[in-house]
């Protein structure tokens, strides 16, 4: 245990925690959708990526300010989220989840290919802010842009909480996620709530996509699959339908990933992350904050 | 298109039809990924092949065994960089009247594809497919040895990097240490660092002080860059695709790692790296088998651009392949009839196998007995958003 | 002609992959581990023939049984969870297998060359078929005999009590449990059978492409494995077959002339298909022509 190792360990953990907020956002998106619809939307990561590309178009054509680029990414992703809902979930039977699952796979392939077709698969630079700012605390460096990413993600989560717990819309959403039929009987328009949820989840995904791209500085279609898989892992660790769970899960995955990278090298890193998840799942099937599974 | 133009064109086409019908057509099929994340490679190759064929046809086409002229024709098939699809595409090409195939673009398609071909010519016990393949893009070292039906016109990375490090030794005598960066889960990047760059650097007296490893779709490089920062290398060599190359270069920039020399992977000397991160890539040195350094190369680049593609080191090989095949077709005495199809394919294979030298855009390519090529090359570096020739060993 | 025989090989191999997911889907579980089982089968069978000189038939059987054993062992912990949790748990397992082969190097010398899995660079020269004088139609014939045996066996199972048990668990676990079915045994059994089929499919796959590497066995392949039976419909084994023909024959091969527009249509057509035929191309029920013969049993099952 020499000094460098200790520094590396702290540094890796800090980086991982900061980066983990993007995983948390994706996880929240999955959890929201799963909460209200009890269905898995595999096109989610791809929609987030496509939204990020919408922001990129503004950046490349008008050299828009990063704030506008981020906003456009988020809103664009929200809009694509609605399209995904209409194409994959609105008209497929609710009692047969396989149909919407496969439709969202088709949508995933389609969105991915549209993005690739438009961009020729080339990586493009994505704007970021505070990219040269570094806070140096002794031998530990904290990246300014990652701090910004962290801050943005926290703000997004705060707004989400306000939306869910302080507005009528949030009340409706929570009602549908608890008991869709009862909510309907109380006069809540379930379809509208579902659409709103997809829109909001899309916006969160767009923010996560934009923040990932801003942290790397480059945007390429290859990140979609990573976002999807990481998001799923986060949801499961945190517990289905639990937003605090998704946040903690995201931070945990981010940190674990970086620590295993340091300890075991890159080729074995993901094996350990997966193994951890597998063990976690079998020992605690409900996730960190999961409620006991009940029969619908 | 206006109706009148359409009518005129149809009339002309009808009038010309008898003449065309008397002529024969020699089909050369192209294949590779033209959709998906690496689709740009196939799109460029397809454009380069189409442009080269157009040039040859404008100059009168190719001469067949009986002295008659034939036009070349080409069609490009998409394999999506998928092994099964690549095999299926080649079988489909073999079922048409194409004499030879140019492709594929991905090394992970090339390996299985070459495996289904007959390993040794005239080996009756080997039922592999008998069809000549002349590869343009798939670059991972040593693949042509898999089958005697395979020829490649890809640059020899071993030669290029050996000379590059010799040149760096000469121009930067004070540089002593090297640090490698490699994308671990991609066969080509891995092979190039461990078997090509590292060997070449050590041979020229550089001390390898460390290796940074990451994966194809990684987004966080801070751990890797930190190791690099502590080693304080004089030279940094990165063997990765443009996306992670850009990510890593950004992180190096952020952690203020400033090596004296920065070396990149051959296939990164394309437009991708520059669209991705022109600023960070500034100064990166890459050996490449193509740069528009002479009139012929410039004319070819313009012709390919007119077809909607880019001429880079990969698509330049596609262009050269068509030109080489024209010579081979003329020298081998191809008959070009439906009955002679099998024989003609064999003749093209034998013709390619006997070549010891072939013309290229930067000068003559040496043809090796195992089907590989050693091509002339230049060292380019990224300079204000363009690839500029830094050193031309041939001149 | 060779081209069509080659296409039939691809369809055959993918049918095995799809059927392996079909068995598990019957019990209502979405397993993303099939690509992992397929990878184990591919590597094991390839090692048997290329490194140790086995014949293809024992190699595939070894691959099948070994993969079945792995699937059984994995099934116990994994099937404690269900729904989305199971999707992710099996996904994690599949990725673990892939990453294992990514790090796995074991080469032996045969005929002056090193042969065997070589980490990230893959496993080259699995040339049992061409080296032993198998013509392409031999290979195609061999694959389809295996496919026919597997489909026949599954068809038979489907029409016995075992099939009804599988579907009962898939339809309503609590109800199935209350009539005395052992859920764990049924699910693990389905997982084991699915693993065996995937292992055999993977073994054949390795030999048709001669070179395998970890990247092939990723999440995308796992997604395709479950896509086939869902797209085709869970009514019978023929749904999977139809879906494989639709995807590999029509979407992949048939539309190749469209160039890069083909990939765009690919996803869009799957979305359309699921909107218009949500329960799959052939639907949830067994096709009518087959129904007549086995009608009675089915009526019983549907009545429950």
From TrEMBL, chain A:
CDD domains: TM_PBP1_LivH_like. Keywords: Amino-acid transport, Cell membrane, Membrane, Transmembrane, Transmembrane helix, Transport. It is a multi-pass membrane protein. Its main location: membrane. One of its GO terms (molecular function) is transmembrane transporter activity. GO terms for cellular component: plasma membrane. Belongs to the binding-protein-dependent transport system permease family. LivHM subfamily. This is Branched-chain amino acid transport system permease protein. It comes from Marivita hallyeonensis. The lineage of its organism: Bacteria, Pseudomonadati, Pseudomonadota, Alphaproteobacteria, Rhodobacterales.
UniProtKB/TrEMBL annotation, chain B:
Residues 1-21 form the signal peptide. InterPro entries: BCAA_transport, Leu-bd, Peripla_BP_I. One of its GO terms (biological process) is amino acid transport. SUPFAM superfamilies: Periplasmic binding protein-like I. Residues 25-384 form the Leucine-binding protein domain. Pfam families: Peripla_BP_6. Keywords: Amino-acid transport, Signal, Transport. Belongs to the leucine-binding protein family. This is Amino acid/amide ABC transporter substrate-binding protein, HAAT family. It comes from Marivita hallyeonensis.
TrEMBL record, chain C:
It is a multi-pass membrane protein. GO terms for molecular function: branched-chain amino acid transmembrane transporter activity. Its main location: membrane. The keyword Cell membrane applies. It is found in: Cell membrane. GO terms for cellular component: plasma membrane. Keywords: Cell membrane, Membrane, Transmembrane, Transmembrane helix. The chain crosses the membrane at residues 6-28, 35-54, 60-79, 86-106, 136-157, 188-206, 212-231, 238-258, 264-283. The keyword Hydrolase does not apply. This is Amino acid/amide ABC transporter membrane protein 2, HAAT family. It comes from Marivita hallyeonensis.
